[in-house]
Amino acid sequence: MLASMASLIFPSLNTLPLWNLKGFIASLLLHVTISEPLYYWAHRFFHKPYLFNHYHSLHHSSPVPHPFTAGHATPLEHLVLCTVIGIPLTGSILMGYGSTAMIYGHVLVFDFFRCLGHSNAEVVPHEVFNKLPLLRYFIYTPTYHSLHHTEMETNFCLFMPLFDALGSTLNTKSLELHKKITSNSGKHGRVPDFVFLAHVVDIMSAMHTPFALRSFASTPFCMRMFLLPFWPLTFIIMLVMWGWSKTFLFSFYNLRCRLHQTWVVPRFGFQYFLPFATKGINKHIEEAILRADRLGVKVISLAALNKNEALNGGGTLFVNKHPELKVRVVHGNTLTAAVILNEFSKDVKEVFLTGATSKLGRATALYLCRKRVRVLMLTSSTERFQKILKEAPVDCQNYLVQVTKHQAAQNCKTWIVGKWITPWEQSWAPSGTHFHQFVVPPILPIRRDCTYGDLAAMRLPPDVEGLGSCEYTMERGVVHACHAGGVVHQLEGWSHHEVGAIDVDRIDLVWEAALKHGLKPVSSVNN
Question: Is pLDDT above 90 for 526?
Answer without folding.
Answer: no
